[in-house]
Amino acid sequence: MRQDFEIAFEELFIEGKLWDAGVKSSFPYGQTNANEDAAGDGPVEEAAKRDGIPLRRVTHTGWRVCAGSAGSAGSGGIARLVELTRSGSAVEKENAAAELSTLAYNNADNQVAIARAGGIAPLVELTRSGSLVAKEKAAGALWTLAYNADNRVAIARTGGIAPLVELTRSGSAVAKEKAAGALWNLAVNADNKVAIARAGGIAPLVELTRSGSAMAKEHAAAALWNLAVNADNSVAIGQAGGIAPLVQLTLSGSAVAKQNAAAALWTLALNDDNKVAIAQAGGNANDQAAIAQAGGIVTLVELTRSGGAAAKEQAAGALWVLTRNATNSVAIARAGGIAPLVELTHIGSAVAKENAAGALWSLALIDDNSVAIARAGGIAPLVELTHIGSPRAQENAAGALWVLARNADNRVAIAQAGGIAPLVELTRSGSAEAKEKAAAALRNLAVNDDNKVAIARAGGIAPLVELTRSGSAVAKEKAAAALWNLAVNDDNSVAIAQAGGIAPLVELTRSGSAVAKEKAAGALRTLAVNADNQVAIAQAGGIAPLVELTRSGSAEAKENAAAALRNLAVNADNRVLTNAGVADDATLKKSIAWCDEEGVTNVSDIVKHKLVDKFVLHLGLKNVPGMELRSLLQRAPMSNRGWPSIPSWLTSFGLPVAGNGAADEKYQRALQEDGFALRALLPGTDKSTLKSLEALLKIDRPKWLGKGNDVSKTYGPYDKLKLACAWEVNHPLLRSKYTAGSLTVQQELRQLQNRGKDVTTVPGLPVKTARVRGFELSEDCNEVILLHGVNREKLFNLLSTGLNERFAGIGAGAAFGAGVYLAEDAGKTDQYVSADSAYDPSSELHKRLYDETMPHPEDVFYVLVVRAALGFPVRTQHTGEGATSMDNEAPIFPVAYRELSAVPGVNPPIFHHSLIAELGKDIVRYREFVFFHSDYVHIDYVIAYHRYNGDQKLRTTVCPVSV
């Protein structure tokens, strides 16, 4: 990002848009700078006013020195002035330098002419060895000459940087002002940025911002602004103590000083360490309480409220960068920053609107801020910016609406504010980035049923379909996700197909990014509920890539693809061909064409009219698949009831396969009434799964069983745990939440990797359960299998609501507060269980677990097998609110007790996804894994097990041993 800003600086000067009085230029993202002193004068005018000499006299004196110039700045006159700076008397050198400064001010031709006449070298020499006045005048001349890009290079090559730096340190007050101004312009050049720092220029410039004259402070702040574009300089300015005086300038400096200091803080804030320093810096004795709470943030917030137009732009830009640190985002909100930022999106300058919208975008990532922005009236002006703002403002406003639309009330408010139509328009005609953000916003808005209809009425389906075809990789992902949500509406499902949406979605399942495949499969899953769409998806070649996704896609892609295939299987042709294992694109197309030719519409027609052999022959299948297809067709009944079950390979992804009888009826009824269902695992059909679950109960240290402060009853000594029975959990709602949560973790891991973090060799991995085979896990989110011990009294609630702090954290939260506590050892989870001794016909839990096919085994304990997206964990060996990371000693709870710290060195901030309590110090015997977001965990199985001592099962109905 710094590189982009540096380019922006260079372009400004190449275009001649220097900091002249009244000239407004952009940095970054259109920020404004102006080289204006308090009176709007140039360097010569400043000198005239300072010395009390009428401006005409100064100019006249200069021309008088240029004898023979005929009152013009011709080449002869300039050459004479240059010669005087080299060989004239002391007074002549002073006057010649002053006149050259006047000639070069705001005159590009003279700037070139003076350099060509050899004027730079003697002026540099004067800054080094001239009289006190000559140094002042020469520094002023170099300042004005440095408006020219070639001159900036020439001054540096002639050795001009070192004496200018020395003047900022030890020159007169006037010399310090001029030298700081010269360094300001010289620092536009990338090489000069480095050279000024190497010459020791940062420290005296910092000192000038603290103790210089009003003008020196303005110039020094601007010079530091330019220097801070270089990453190393940014660090050096922070280390030199530059943050605090810059913050002070935003509080008490002149209007120009405030503007320049805010801009410098903006640039410095791009460095992670400086973000913290800016937030901690003080400077206003009259507001110590606020400064102690938020430091420099308070001053920047105040500038967005009451500064000049340019200062508001710079301050909003600085706050935007600071919001990428979560702690700063909280501080900005507490400092009252949301209201003035909202105000800027409404009535600020074009640049201020861009920066304020960007800041609100980042602030909205915190849920409380999202609510506060809406309450402050932020939605309406953001919607307005998506409609008539600059391209950058449209991008930032769409991004802000995207994040705000995560909140249900905000989704309604955005629609009521007229936000849907301009977002739709951005997906059609906005910039590439605006299209991505607008599609993402529509995706979130489409969670609301009314918005689904409104987006379609606003013409949103066609441009979203187009984005899935020709948008950027990110746009394709967002558009596919939006279409997925929209397709839940029946009319939209038809409209998406009519808009040509099926073909590009199918293509995304084949060749899109991992995320695009997930979202496209989800969209096809929903579209396939419609009978016509089932045919269209098959005709578009959708079955083959969906089948492939069930084998090799991410967890979410597998789930969506399997569900899509299940929906497609409702169509008779698709179902029979899929079950026969011949559902490749070519065969499906042949099948559809043949059916059209023969006038048959379903499989029952093929059987009824005795066309089975003809159909199989037409498809040209080899013997074995042909025989399989023939067999399936001939077994097919005359209606859709009782069709052969969904292909067996779908069962490996946790999807229930309906069978016959009371068990299936019980299962389906539970899904409808409870929202979840349990499938008993049977030795005959689930042998491999049961073997894997049994392996999870293996104990490495039998002597530790029954030990620990949390053990309530042991029922005697025991040395092993044995599986009694188990159930697979199917909770569609919680599974979808976990899918979304694990996707978030996956995306954030990808962002961490892009920012240089190693997400493949994460400390704390692998977990012990990784040695157990049979569980298909996603490396994309560092997915693991963990365990959670549970009492019979809590089990039903956990199965219904999922693992969350309301149930999972109660009684287990002494170490790190309320959270989801998991373990890799069954010996650890065994500490938290109590016995379920016998069947209770009145128990709601027992009604769902046990029946004639799965009788209660008596004397059992329960443990949950949990799939968890470990992501990028933070590790500690301490407990309590003050626990610190064992990797970097930073607090693991910097913001709130229920939120983990951000990953160091990453901005925008990404928070650690999980906590690993490692052995040592406060942690003994077993590691623990704690999650504070229930969307990152999912219950896959329930195990009922017995405690054994040798070969003897422990009875739990007599003589329990209290601990």
TrEMBL record:
Pfam families associated with the record: Arm, PARP
Record-linked SMART domains: ARM
Domain of life (superkingdom): Eukaryota
An example molecular function term from Gene Ontology annotations: NAD+ poly-ADP-ribosyltransferase activity
InterPro entries named among the record's database cross-references: ARM-like, ARM-type_fold, Armadillo, Poly(ADP-ribose)pol_cat_dom
PANTHER family in UniProt: U BOX DOMAIN-CONTAINING, U-BOX DOMAIN-CONTAINING PROTEIN 4
Protein name: Vacuolar protein 8
Organism: Chrysochromulina tobinii
